[in-house]
């Protein structure tokens, strides 16, 4: 049974068809990647799924319910977490606080209880902290726990962002270029974490990625897009071998000849 | 360097990381409580004034420092608080009811105007608050039956459980009342900032799009922050009314809004402590200037009193210098000095280097 | 007839608001910052012209004093950017707001110390000259205000839309880093624009002074001009002018026909209404952050 179903999705900005007629389904427990050349509309598809943009046409179903008209702030509650291509962390807070912010949808207290800091609020804080510590342990962020984001290296921030998404406790996690800007070792770590997320946490992963090595290593299925249109879908090998995909990346043979 | 061994998550949740910190805080509160026995009435009144400014500063800090909503019109909330409290008390409502009600009504007003205003980003909100301020000022004049119009209104003296808290008759009691309010609000504010609500404020300040992805309702969070901010400022306004005794709309000029911004910026944006440091500076400066003026006049015969507007321009220059050289404010500077001593002799200049950011428009075309 | 008479005066008034608003827009267009000292720059410009031109002071000819004042204020604007504003480059927008508010107080203090706080009148060759069109009376000052404002707005609009440096300035506002990379001297452009807005403010100040007495507190008019800029949309030059005129016309008419107090509130009520319905102003540029 598929967790996320996208049907005939399209969005137009003015006359530009950024995404046009994309359909795919991600199964429960699957690692699914969207690949394509720059400007193909991969990130736009992500923004449509996380409802930062509203689609011009098409339907998005999650966990058996139509969520097309939802608001971006409803996503976390539904169980969809995401990371951003250009890291959008809360720069002036510590890593710990950033992760705790991911627990927002699980809060039970209201602001009046918070102001009084009732014992129930403290109990809840301890619980959130335990969840967050699990994420810290999983991603090996212990050394950075009380460091502010501003001073952290790029690679660490990238991982903190994944951690924050995990802290939400999602069913589906959207990773927008998780390996971009990372070293080979760091990329390897990301590959292992994605494996673990699927195996140990039972997560479904949807990612946009350029690094074909990472994609072939961790992904079950791949969707290739170009100019907002779907090109091919299948296992990483099938998609890489597809002539349309090769043409989109390398140009058509005729063009190369000229 | 102090090393804190944490053996439980509670150590992070507690307000103070360290027993020593808690001791220092209690010592400070003790000193403030004993202040009436240590200084004369003139300085006690000044201390009361400083506390009122600190309260108003905390109000603005919630909006500016912790949620990133700049307000150029917070004097309007001071005014609403002061007038509501005074008008209710003149109508026979006891202080114990009128005072919280003044805060509540001001807070509701703030939240209501914030709901459309939150759709606007940064600069536009600042301008909208300025507009609200001008409108409130005019409304005060128009609502003469309640506000006394141009001639103003008297804030009656406070009596609680048969004890007088009159500003002039029982200054000690009045001071303690203000201190109690300030301590309560500070405690609530500190609690807020270690709880999910406070974190959601910070989230909205630092990245709206991420905050949404965390499931935070940005509009509601901003309205809540602005409501709390104006509510606390309203409480400060009510106390200010009692402190002044008889006031009209001129007490709450646009300069008061600017001074409040000064309090939070110079004090240190994003730190509760900053509101207090800023308040000490802004209420202490005129005293220092007055002393200097008298001193110069007596010793070298230079009469600074003949230059009008000197106070304001001094404030402005200090503000400019702070923004250029120490944007983290007095509290930020203090943190750096403390770190330097704690690490001595290992601190490097580089540690406190600011990260330059480049402006990138949020406009798409 | 009375209505038309009010409207003409209102348009002229609105032109002043519009000119000050142009200053806001210039700086907003290049640095996405807002200069809250714009009104005080206008005040200072008017006083510099007065100091140069009035017979009791330097006594230069009006036609010499005004261009000289414009040049001086260009340098003041340029200098403010070089000495103060440049240092907070890279800090959040909010820092510039507070910085310029403080600068406004400094300007006011400077003007007050030199020229005093009592109202002064600028001597012009056309003091009290009126033109009659049937029943309609238009003062020379009003007419000049309208003509000069339109010309200046058109000139600035052309500058931004068609000259290299104007386009560079716009590019700098949208992405400073990228502008650097393609070789735009962002800092120099910023200084130039601040100088320009100082010059425009002086023109506004002189025109304001031709219509009445001035004192160091007229800079508070900046708040109203601000409303004008916001109504038009902070990034639009013609929008600023139209916003100014709208306020200028509504104010006297509200003062004449509406109950007391409404006239003073009217610019802000219009502004709030615009902000609520079209948060980016009437001539809005699309606001949305790309992620």
From TrEMBL, chain A:
Bilayer-crossing regions: none
GO molecular function: ATP binding; ATP hydrolysis activity
UniProt keyword DNA-binding, yes or no: no
Organism from which the protein derives: Marinobacterium mangrovicola
Domain annotation ABC transporter: ranges: 4-252
Protein name (Swiss-Prot/TrEMBL): Amino acid/amide ABC transporter ATP-binding protein 1 (HAAT family)
Keywords: ATP-binding, Nucleotide-binding, Transport
Phosphoprotein keyword on record: no
Pfam families: ABC_tran, BCA_ABC_TP_C
GO cellular component, one term: plasma membrane
InterPro entries associated with the record: AAA+_ATPase (IPR003593), ABC_AA/LPS_Transport (IPR051120), ABC_transporter-like_ATP-bd (IPR003439), BCA_ABC_TP_C (IPR032823), P-loop_NTPase (IPR027417)
TrEMBL record, chain B:
One cellular component (GO) term of this entry: plasma membrane
Entry keyword annotation includes Transmembrane: yes
Protein name (Swiss-Prot/TrEMBL): Amino acid/amide ABC transporter membrane protein 2 (HAAT family)
Membrane topology: Multi-pass membrane protein
Cytoplasm as UniProt keyword: no
Chief localisation class: membrane
GO MF annotation list: branched-chain amino acid transmembrane transporter activity
Spans through the membrane: 25-45, 51-83, 95-117, 123-143, 150-168, 174-192, 223-245, 313-332
Localization of this protein: Cell inner membrane
Keywords, in A-Z order: Cell membrane, Membrane, Transmembrane, Transmembrane helix
Automatic annotation (TrEMBL), chain C:
Membrane-spanning residues: 6-28, 40-56, 62-84, 96-117, 137-160, 192-214, 226-250, 262-284
Entry keyword Membrane: yes
Major localization listed first in the record, in broad terms: membrane
Translocase listed as a keyword: no
GO cellular component: plasma membrane
CDD domains linked to this entry: TM_PBP1_LivH_like (cd06582)
Mode of membrane association: Multi-pass membrane protein
Keyword terms of this UniProt record: Amino-acid transport, Cell membrane, Membrane, Transmembrane, Transmembrane helix, Transport
Cellular location(s): Cell inner membrane
Pfam families named among the record's database cross-references: BPD_transp_2
GO molecular function, one term: transmembrane transporter activity
InterPro entries reported for this sequence: ABC_transp_permease, BCAA_transport_permease
GO biological process entries: amino acid transport
Family recorded in the similarity comment: Belongs to the binding-protein-dependent transport system permease family. LivHM subfamily.
Name of the protein in its database record: Amino acid/amide ABC transporter membrane protein 1 (HAAT family)
Source species: Marinobacterium mangrovicola
